[in-house]
Amino acid sequence: MSDRYIVGVDLGGTSINVGIVPYDGGTVLGMRSLPTDVPRGAKFVVDRMVRMIRAAMKDARREGDIPADGFLGIGIGSPGPLDRETGTVLETPNLGWRNFPLRDLIANAVGLTAVLDNDANCAALGEYWQGAGRNVRNLVAVTLGTGIGGGIVLDGRVYHGASDLAGEIGHMTIDSTGRKCKCGNYGCLEAYASGPAIAARAVEGLEAGATSLLPSLVDGDLSRLTAETVYEAIVTGDVYAKEVMRETAKFLGTGLANLINVLNPDMIVISGGVTRAGEHLLEPLRAEVRRRAFRKGFETCEIVVSELGGMAGVVGAAATFRVERCGGLR
Amino acid sequence: MSDRYIVGVDLGGTSINVGIVPYDGGTVLGMRSLPTDVPRGAKFVVDRMVRMIRAAMKDARREGDIPADGFLGIGIGSPGPLDRETGTVLETPNLGWRNFPLRDLIANAVGLTAVLDNDANCAALGEYWQGAGRNVRNLVAVTLGTGIGGGIVLDGRVYHGASDLAGEIGHMTIDSTGRKCKCGNYGCLEAYASGPAIAARAVEGLEAGATSLLPSLVDGDLSRLTAETVYEAIVTGDVYAKEVMRETAKFLGTGLANLINVLNPDMIVISGGVTRAGEHLLEPLRAEVRRRAFRKGFETCEIVVSELGGMAGVVGAAATFRVERCGGLR
After folding, report:
1. Which residues, numbered 51 to 70 in chain B, qualify as contacts with chain A under a Cβ-Cβ cut-off of 8 Å?
2. pLDDT at B1 over 60
3. What ipTM is given for this predicted complex?
4. Which of A279, A286, A317, B264 is geometrically suited to a Cys-Cys bond with A8, CB 3.0 to 4.6 A?
C-alpha cells in the first residue's frame, strides 16, 4: 500500500468532486461530490471545497491507515482560462469569477501546497496516467459537454502552449461559413457537436418537418429538448434521432481528423454525455475520421471512450500535482 | 570561427540545395543548387547529391580553412512521408520513390553519418535556430507552395507525432462540404490556398465574368494562369487579382486560427511563393486570424514571413543533425 497521497480536486460549473489519490495510482479514497452552487458566490464555493478536502482526508486516513504527514499536496482542476504560475482563475463564464486566486486560498486554508491547471488538461493527464491512455505516449482528450474542450498530453506532460491556451479544439473551424458559435466565430466544431448544438440541430430538423418520437418526449415543447432527449429517442429506435447522431459523428469526425493530421497522436480519448450513444456515435465517427485523415495517421490513432469517466478530473488533478511537484508519472 | 561544420542537404521535387553550416550557426559556406531532374531516376539524383556534397565540402574547406575532420555529418531534408529511424523515404508523389534508403546511400557514399527528416520539419527547425523564430520556444512553420506543409517545433525539438506524420496542416478541413482536395478529402486548407488552388479560384472567377488584366498576362490561355500570374497582376494594381489574394488570406487565416486555438504557438512562420504578395496577403490574413482565434492566443502569436527563405531547408537540415546527434540547439 502506498504511504504517500495526493488530494485531487475537480471543480466544475455544476459539481465539485474531491478524492484522495495514492501517489502510485490505484483506488481513490474518501471520494465525495457536492453541487458547486455557483450563485452562492466564490467564498461559499471555496469554503465548500476546503470542507470537502478536510473530510476526504479524514475519511482516507481511516480507510487507508494514512499517517498525518502522508499527504503531499493538492492538485486542483478548474474551468479556465487561468494563470498556472500564479494559480489564478482569470475568467470563467461557468463560474463568473475574474482574476480569482483559487490555488492559494485553498492551499492556505488546508495547509498543503497546491497546483492549479484547467479541467480539460487534468482530464487528459488522468487518462494518460490511470485511464485509457496508460500505454501511449501522446494523446488528446476531448470532452463533449456544454462546450467542447481538449487536453493534449505529449510525452507524459500536458502541452500548454505559449499562454496556457493550447487544446481549445472546440473552436477549430470546420466550416468557415457555417453555424455561429458562442465564441463569436463561425463554423466552430463546438457549434455542431456540443450538447446544445446537437439539440439545436435536432429541433431545426423537426421544425422542417422531420418525423420523430422526439417531440413526444418533451410534451411537444421543443425548447425543452436536449442532447439527452436525443439519446433517449435513440434507445427506443427512433430513426430521426439516429440520423441526428450520425450527423454529429460526421462533424466530430471532421474535427478529430484535423487533430490527427496536425498532431498525429497515439490516441484520442472522448468523454462526456454524448459518448453514452455508444456505437451509434463511434461507428460513424471512426468512418468519418478514416475518410478525412491520412491513412497512416488514422491507423496509428486509437479512438476510444474515457475509462475514468467522472473520475478523470480528480485523478488528473492529482496527476498534475505529481508532474509539477514530483517530476513526472512514469 | 567555428571549427565544426554540418552538411545541410535540401532535396525538393524541383531542386537540390546543399551548403556547409557552421555548428554554431552563421554564414553558410559552399552553397550550391541544381535541378533535381526527377525523370532521370533515383540513382541519378543520389549521384548528383553526393557530387554536390563533395564539391560543397571542398569549397567550404578552402573558404573556411576547415580541417579534413571538421565535418560532423550530414542532415538531409526530403519530401515525405518517410521513416526517420531507418532513414527511408516511404513514398513521395514529387519524386516517385518508394521505400528508398536515401539516408544510408548518401552516408555511405560520402563517408559521414547522416540523419533524415522531412523538408517541412527541417524548414521549421531552421527558422527556430537561425531565422524568424530565434527568440521563441514554440513555433509552427507553414510552407505554401504546390502543397501546404507544416513543421511544428515545441521547446526546441521537432514534434513528430506517433508515426512521423504531425504537421500535415494543409489537410485540416476548413470547409467540411467544400472543394475537393488532391488527397481525396473535401474542404482541406490546401484545396483553397496552395498555388494551384489560388490559380484555380482565379480562373473560376474569370470564367464567371470577372473583369481583370489576368487573361492578357497569359495571352488569353487561362490554362497557363498560375499563382505567379496573380502576383504579377497585383503589382500592376489589378483589383480582381487583389480580391483573389484577399480570399486566399481568409482561407489561410482560418487555418492559422485553427493552429492557434489548438497549439497556442509563440509564432507562425509562413514561407513560399505566395508570401511575395506581402501586405496584400498579410494584412487580411492577420485580420481573419484575429476574427477567428481566441484573443489571447492571437495576441501571443506573431505571424511572420520566413527570414531564411530558400536557405531554411539547408540550415534546418543541418539543425536536424545537430538536434539528433549533438543533443539540441540552444
Report:
1. none
2. no
3. 0.91
4. A317
Residue B160 in contact with partner chain A when CB distance is under 8 A? yes
Q: B5-118+310-326 with B132-306: one CATH topology?
A: yes
Residue A199 φ/ψ region, left for φ over 0, alpha for ψ in the -120 to 50 degree band, beta for the rest = alpha
What would the DSSP string read from start to end of A206-226? HHTT---SHHHHTTT-GGG--
Neighbours of B21 (CB within 10 A): 31
Instruction: Name which of B166, B174, B301 is nearest A173 (Cβ-Cβ).
Output: B174
Asked if A182 reaches chain B (Cβ–Cβ under 8 Å), the answer is no
Q: Inform me whether the C-beta atom of residue A300 falls under 8 Å from chain B C-beta atoms.
A: yes
User: Does A263 sit within 8 Å of B262, measured CB to CB?
Assistant: yes
pTM of the model: 0.93
The residue type at A63: E
Question: pLDDT tens digits, residue range A226-264?
Answer: 999 999 999 999 999 999 999 999 999 999 999 999 999
Instruction: Tell me the per-residue pLDDT of A151-200, one tens digit each, with 9 for 90 and over.
Output: 999 988 999 999 999 999 999 999 999 999 988 899 999 999 999 999 99
**CATH number of the domain located at residue range(s) B5-118+310-326 in this protein:** 3.30.420.40
Q: Say yes or no: A118 contacts chain B, CB-CB below 8 A.
A: no
What does the alpha-carbon distance between residue B6 and residue B323 come to, in Å, rounded to a whole number?
Answer: 12
Q: Which residues of A touch B164 (CB under 8 A)?
A: 264
**Tens of pLDDT along B9-59?**
999 988 999 999 999 999 999 999 999 999 999 999 999 999 999 999 999
d(CA B103, CA A105): 57
Name the CATH superfamily for B132-306. ATPase, nucleotide binding domain (3.30.420.40)
Residues of chain A numbered 67-106 and touching chain B (CB < 8 Å) = 81
In chain B, domain spans: 5-118+310-326, 132-306
